[in-house]
Structure formats: C-alpha cells, structure tokens
Design brief:
Blueprint lengths: L25 H4 L7 H9 L5 E3 L4 H11 L6 H8 L2 E4 L4 E4 L10 H5 L13 E7 L4 E5 L10 E4 L6 E3 L4 H10 L2 H4 L8 H6 L5 E6 L14 E6 H14 L5
Antiparallel strand pairs: 1-2, 2-3, 3-4, 4-5, 5-6, 6-7, 8-9
Helix pairs in contact: 3-4
Length: 247
C-alpha cells in the first residue's frame, strides 16, 4: 500500500530508553500548562474523515495514563487521558485510548502480554490502533527496526510489517485526512460501511479465503464472519510463523 501523507504539526512522543524501575504517578504525567489535547482537538475539528471521540471515564483514563507512562503533552498521552478511544470512518480504524463501552480496550491493557509483560517495561513496540479487517498499527520502540518512533502497519493482505515512515502524530493526520479508500483499495467490499458501523471495538471481520492468498484477492467473493480482535491478532502471528516469515 502506497500513500502520501500531509504535513502536520508534531507533538513529541518517545519511549523511555531504559527499563523503568519506578513508574511516574499519573499526576506527574498530566501536563496542564501545555496539554497535547488542544492540538489534537483542533486536528479533529478540521478532519476530512469522520472522527468519533468516545467519552472518557476519568478514573479509567488516569489508570490508563499511569500504565502507559506517557505525558499528556504528547498526542498519545492526550488521547489516552482525554478519550475512550477514537473511531475513524464509521469505525473502520479504531485508535486506542482509555476504553469505552463501545470500544472496550485500553492502550496499555491491550498491549500487556503482547509488547511487554509488566507495566513499566520498555516495549519493543506498542499496538496503537487496528482496523475492521484485522490490520494492526504499531509504534516502533526498537523491536521493528532502527526507525524508533515510527508507525508500521501489520497488514492482513500480506502479513508483513509495512513501514509507513510516519510518527504517531502524523498517523493521526493520516487517519483524519488521508484518502482511506485509496489506502485500503481492494480491501473494502460492497456495503462495508453499514456493516462496519455496527461492529464492536473488540471485534473484526475474518475473511476466507485469507486476504493474503491468491484466492482471496477479490474481497467481494470472500466469506466473512465477525470474530474477537484478540483471535485475529493471534491468528495473524501464527500464520506468519507457518509461512516462514518469523524464523
């Protein structure tokens, strides 16, 4: 998938360079002087694509921020602390925040057991978003390549980790303003919007034949069923191993 990204003002986000021995309290991570949400909110207001900001639960947001260990000055911290998550294009892309009944996953809890074992560890990557067809967006913490801080797409149509060469803030710009029909060309079926809009945030569509197979090249001819996103993520990883991608 080839895509051009618009220029966008960046907010600063980095991973810790060493494993943390002491986690900062949530209060230490809340930046009242220069909150990143002010900028993110402006981006949302001018977005070309539909963006739904899910209501936040204050106590859950504080807990999620503490577990994530990022400052609210960053765009990631802002989304974790100020939203239950973001739904893009009627829920086609789901950006992880602090959880909501409609999107019952938090960024830190979803990553635990996948990118790290215990909260406070330095993750080799972070799962930051996913889409309705079982694709996953990851922020590189060093485990995916030397381009730390850049976003990758774990694509269901080739099972590869595709370098998007964009930061987290630029990823938000991609979700808000990019031509998603073009990016997902060939992976949107007739009537997808109505079906996706009814999908829960912890569910995805599973396709057979698989999207990466020659037989699955026409998505309108594939059968599809709704499965838990956890099941799809595990399946993608297992298939990579079976196909010899991970040696």
């Amino acid at each position: 998938m080839i895509v051009k990204f618009p220029l966008i003002v960046l907010t600063f986000i980095t991973f810790a360079v060493t494993a943390q021995t002491k986690m900062k309290k949530a209060e230490e991570l809340i930046d009242k002087a220069d909150p990143g949400w002010t900028i993110v909110e402006d981006w949302i207001k001018t977005a070309k694509n539909k963006v739904e900001v899910l209501p936040v639960d204050a106590s859950k947001a504080k807990d999620a921020l503490y577990k994530t260990q990022v400052t609210t000055r960053s765009s990631m911290g802002a989304i974790v602390f100020m939203t239950g998550g973001l739904l893009i294009d009627d829920g086609w892309i789901r950006i992880l925040g602090s959880g909501n009944l409609k999107f019952n996953r938090t960024l830190p809890d979803w990553n635990k057991g996948k990118s790290f074992k215990e909260f406070g560890e330095t993750p080799p990557f972070l799962l930051i978003a996913d889409d309705a067809i079982g694709g996953f967006y990851l922020l590189n913490g060093g485990g995916l390549g030397t381009d730390v801080g850049k976003v990758y797409y774990f694509s269901p149509d080739n099972l590869e980790y595709e370098q998007l060469d964009i930061t987290y803030s630029e990823f938000l710009g991609f979700c808000f303003n990019n031509d998603l029909d073009k990016f997902y060309e060939g992976n949107r079926w007739n009537g997808w919007r109505q079906e996706v809009s009814k999908l829960k945030g912890d569910e995805v569509f599973n396709f057979y034949p698989f999207l990466w197979s020659a037989e699955g090249s026409d998505i309108n001819k594939s059968s599809r069923k709704i499965i838990p996103v956890q099941e799809q993520y595990s399946l993608n990883l297992d298939l990579r191993k079976q196909l010899g991608f991970d040696k």
